[in-house]
Predict the 3D structure of the following.
Amino acid sequence: MSMRTKSNPGLEPDNWLARRVSSSIEQFRQLEHAGLGALVAESRDGKTIQLEDGRRIVEFASCCYLGFESDPRLVEAAKLSLDRWATQLACARTRIVVQDVVRLEQLLSQILGGMAVTVFQSASLAHVGILPLFAAGVLPSFSFRSPQFILDRKAHASIQVLRAVLESFGRVVNINIDDLNAVEESLQRARRDGHTPIVICDGIGSMGHIAPIEAMLPMLDRVDGYLYCDDAHGFSVLGEHGQGHAMSHLKKSPHRGIVIVSLNKSFGTNGGAAVVPTTNDLQVIQRYATSYAFSGSPALPLVGASIESAMLHLSSELCDRQALFNRNLALLDRELDECPLPVLNQFSTSPVRGVLLGSEKQCIDFCAAILHRGYLVTAALYPTVERDAATARIAISANHTHGQIVGLCNIIRDLAG
């Protein structure tokens, strides 16, 4: 799809988003020209997708790490929920709350160590609703007058786009949270200046970095600061009952922060959830979060599937599914151990893997060559990643076969050599 010709040359907008768009137009054109744009899928069988042009490809692009999205029990639960509720109940949840949604929130609370939980249509919409309330200091567990936000440069785009909202409440400082000295210095400076510091980051980043939450919590304790964490990629695939990377640490200090999780990835269904210390916090969220009070619940048929997935997470079966995923991840790591290109997060606990190419053109050519041989990986380009850090991202699933993983790795080694 081509960009529309500007009607007023010389009057182009000059702001951060306009600059980001204008600086990335060409690489997106290259991506589409290489056949790596939005591929149209007609059907799937396991991890094999049939495209509308008849090609059959093995996809390593979707982040359904544990393979629950195709579990027959979740599919049947969605069908039963559709029969019960039809397609939707178009009513704000401040007026009618569907019983299944209440049940799902109770189960998610059990998974997440007894924290208070409410669900949204997506994790992105949870940010839209929660971050302004958190920044305003109106949530009972997080009362303060003068916040300062310490925003990780690698935080997800759905958080970064809300920077202007945060700036209406306090100063925003960008840092790299992998640099713990910079974190400590930023926290101490904020406190010395009379502010309440709030660290905002991803738990497991979409490009695979792992937030040092365990190390940051004592720092936050010393300055009476807080954490706001998007753990979309850590939830379900990591931790007891799948509680994720962030909650595995924050449960020891639940008063120190808020976690947002996604049900769209390892959990295998649809929606997002906000995890807060108390039901008093939930009451404020459910009254005043705009994306809660003025939006519906997650798709009701998939709420039924989410209940089924939650019950599986609370059973011993989750450990088996996590173990299968970890075996597949270990196989990928071993197969790429002698790859001449850098492998992102190799042998780490992050579920995200990738091959670092550097330039956008190299990454596009690399991913196009892989697609030509029948496999799909994600070409992650600027602004999704930093400039000259273009990466062929690989999403492994418990549903991938040994042969599919080895087949992809053979192609990657061949192209990299």
About this structure: Confidence is low (pLDDT under 50) at residues 1-5. The chain has two domains: 16-69+318-416, 87-313. DSSP finds 15 helices and 15 strands in the chain.
